[in-house]
Design goal:
374 residues; 2 domains; 17 strands; seven-stranded mixed beta sheet; alpha+beta; Immunoglobulin-like; 8 helices; Aminopeptidase; 24% strand
Length: 374
Amino acid sequence: MKISSNFDSGNINVIEASMPGNIRLSINKDNGSDFYQWFHFRLSGAKNQLCALNIENMNEAAYPQGWVDYQAVASYDHENWFRVSTVYKDGILTIQHVPETDSVYYAYFAPYSYDRHQELVSSAATHDRVRLEVIGETCDGRDLDLLTIGEAGETKKKIWIIARQHPGESMAEWLVEGLLGRLLDDDDALSRDLLDKCVFYVMPNVNPDGSVRGHLRCNAKGQNLNRDWADPSRLDSPEIYYLRNKMDKIGLGLCLDVHGDEALPYNFIACFEGIPNLDQYNLDTAYMFGRELEKCNPDFQNEKGYGKSPQGTANLGMSTNQIASRFDAVAMTLEMPFKDTVDSPNPETGWSPQRSIKLGSSCLDALSKILDRL
């Protein structure tokens, strides 16, 4: 029996793995920080044995409340993921499972691999309406890929979609895959109409270093990118430095920043109520987007979410606040759960890549309803 994590997005530390019924593990911190929560590892050689995988340092994870009612995901082929029995008690997360084969993967959420990211970007770039541009490099030397979709024009709306500032929130890139798949479907009338009116700037993975390293929240140098928007460093946060500079050059009318939330079992948006120069029209447009998304995809809801900051108290280091303030634009953070949705549960898969993909497609329906306000 062996446990390994020396692969793309792998993260686990083995304390003891001599008996299937008492495997002791811990999660490694993001490099250069105290954040940790993401795990992804393979168990081999335990076919048809009841395994108890005890991850012991969970009470000091970034969001311990995220373990309440949480079920880990497992896969035999790294493609199809399902939920397995998981219990959190006294700071230990215990996954109990009888593997059907001698190779099984366990993860915090279904990973979105760097290979799949490259395939997504390369496939999109074959479309005649798409231009791929590398806007810079990460700390580890990986490309920062930006897809421009549609032909620029003076009357065109500028729509930005960015995802995975926090690399462990892999559901964000699954959503972008769904959005891109529909947007580039020549047989989809709504997508054709949107591309006649808009130019889309899509960055499917803002933090590829953290994704490959198996981080929850930080880049290679331990920077939480979604706190660096006010004054990003080219050396420590090149991802935001190059991305914000590109936004400054191009401009924008709307930005959707896609994330995942560890604790809340809902899909929801967070807006920019706390910025000092609040434009109520822009805020109302963001709220309208949320209402339209709920109409076209019942997995989404608007009742539950984060509290609203009083005006003037917003953290301008966060993308949605900085972008709404900097560009006098509509900006939203879309959050999805690591768990399941309370209102529309699926016990077998919980919230899943497939449901994230569908929600990404639905975002285009909602966008079409508010386009005239941008």
